[in-house]
Sequence to fold (475 residues):
Amino acid sequence: MWKTVIGLEIHAQLLTSTKLFCSCPANYGDSPNSNVCPVCFGLPGALPVLNGEAVRQALRAALLLNCRINRTSSFDRKNYFYPDLSKGYQITQFFHPYAENGYMEIEVGGTRRIGITRIHIEEDAGKSFHDEERGETLVDFNRCGTPLIEIVSEPDLETPEEAAEYLRRLRELLVYAGVNDGNLEEGSLRCDANISLHREGEPLGTRVEIKNLNSYRFLQRALRYEQERQAELLERGEEVGRETRLFDVKSNRTMVMRTKEQLLDYRYFPEPDLGILRIEEEEIRLAGSTLPETPALKRERYVREYHLSADDAKILVSSPSQAAFYEETVKLGAPPVKAAHWLLTELLQHASGSDPFLTPPLTPKAFADLLVSLEKGRITAPMAKDILPEMIEKGLSATELIAKKGIALVDSPEAVKAMVKGVLEGLRPEVERYRAGETKLLGFLIGEVMKSCKGAAQPKTVNQTVREFLEGKEE
Fold:
């Protein structure tokens, strides 16, 4: 039986307005090669100046990941040639990173603690665009110099599922910290996976790296393929090559990108144009004092205080803006369980955009008003569902819309009895079949009554009144 060893390297772009070593905007989607300068290209005489906001954001991430912050760290040059690396080297932290020895816990069939070896600050490269039809490659250097942190895990992950969950929880934590937007598709969060196989009790096998995995599903599929590929090689007595590979989503296979470089190939040496990075204790304290409640603690609190299911809590907490909207709704008087259910089932149906709760379709106050009206029996669930889209479209509260539309709740016993009698008198054959023992018709009969009043009567009252009529008590 082969034992799998997996470690992940996560590259996360920091949410700064400017690049790591210059004042060029760090904007995604701007016109190609519009945000560049001599520092981006490493032209002679152009000197880098470290972005202090990038360091502050990196500190927040490291503290949330339980890392030890090194009071002094330094920058180094990593030398290699690639078309989108205009300088021919990358400024990173190799010898002395700013943070080390952290951990994060994941839940996959139980709680597991995954170690974090180090987090270092570095600059991003540009981006190549391959046009296969025209047979050419274009390069956009706008991304060159964008600040990154690289989070290197210990080789503690044992399955593709654990790796995907680690990436999912890490993304969640970085978004909550406000240091990364979590956008895997746009490449602001990228994952490289290292995987090897060995027999229990034997030395670790040869490590293969899979580059640029940008979804949880692709990460799992790539690692699963590598598990099978390496196991087949080892079973045949062949060696696994030390390679860097890419995952092809169409064929569901990894392919060789290049043979793996050795550390000597990068010719690391201290960056001569930058001094020592010193982080004072007061900076660490300030960064720690502004940390948010972690997603894991928030999930636990939702279950404990709001009596939500673990699954509902997990979904609500998956987005900071969604969690904030939910908590504000509850704070304004909405019942917590009902608020969670309506947010996740009804409100999200009408939401649009990548993060609808940053610019919500309606305010927490309006949403709470709807749920309070429902809870106090002023409207029924069908009525609430009916007016919710209009609340979103027109920006009105439930109270305003109820008054404007003249919505009336059929709530007096006499009115409900009259309505039930009127509907069931027109369904005499079905009523007689029910009384003859075909009791499965009860749901149909109740449904017809609810349909006739367009949901304007409380289901519990209708249910009881229909039963009384069928038993001959109200005829």
Remarks:
- The first helix runs from residue 38 to 41.
- The chain has three domains: 2-284, 293-405, 413-470.
